[in-house]
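We modelled the chain as a single entity of 288 amino acids. Its sequence is:
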Amino acid sequence: MAHYGPEASGWLDAAPQILAEAAERWKLTLSSYHDAGHSSVVAVARDIHDTPVLLKAWYERARYRDEVTALRLWASGPTAGVIETADDLSVASLELVGGRPGGRARPDREVQMVAAVIQGLHAVGAKRGRPALPRLGDHLQHTVLPRVARRAGTLGLGRRAWLVREAMPELQALRESPSRTTVLHADLYRENVLFDGRGNPRLIDPHPLVGDAAYDWAFWSVYYDLGQATFQRLAIASRISRIPVPEISAWCRAVALDGLLYYSEIGDPAQETAAEVLAALMASGLEG
């Protein structure tokens, strides 16, 4: 919950009671597993049939609303299903992928399988209209560009300053393709992809946006396993999505720049790897 700062501490203290109230409402029995993430708190519970489910409480009502909206839009797809919701509490009961926290073991062909379900998710999102979710264009214009400019201007970047200067125009020049508009997961880190009892990947914890599918493919290429096999994922993404590599690569450079500055601001050791990834992308010659 460090994402929200000290103001979230009071809510965190109350979160166990909030989860307990939701469990009582839905006749669930809470177990001892709890976890506080970047924007939510989760616990495992069991229903009257002794089936494990996940209870999730969000600090921010908008995040609750957006995530539930996206998961319902993707219902019956490769995501965690929504079982119950309590709008007054910003709590949902969700399918527990694989029947346990963290899901099942990852198969050997993990990357190819995950790419296939991302493509499937985009196909569903493109077919089911335009839900009331934040737009990628607005997110870029009003959140990403200002924070990148602020961080680039205030952080002591040292030997990385040239890299940031070279990459800034890439971000500013990005343009979405309306023909690729869909509902994006927009948070495709590896920990947000679990495997169920049948060995199938399921995408959890979206930070959904409506926009160009290239953004999701770029985020996945860069951050699914930061610093490892970036260009292999980029090639797979292009082959499955049929979006040209140079177009995805332009988005890759943008998300890598944003991440580098974020890691630099908080002093995360991942900044070294992020800088290496951005430098490799800038040197690749894969122009958008």
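As a brief sanity check on the tokenised model: DSSP finds nine helices and nine strands in the chain. The chain has two domains: 2-99, 110-283.
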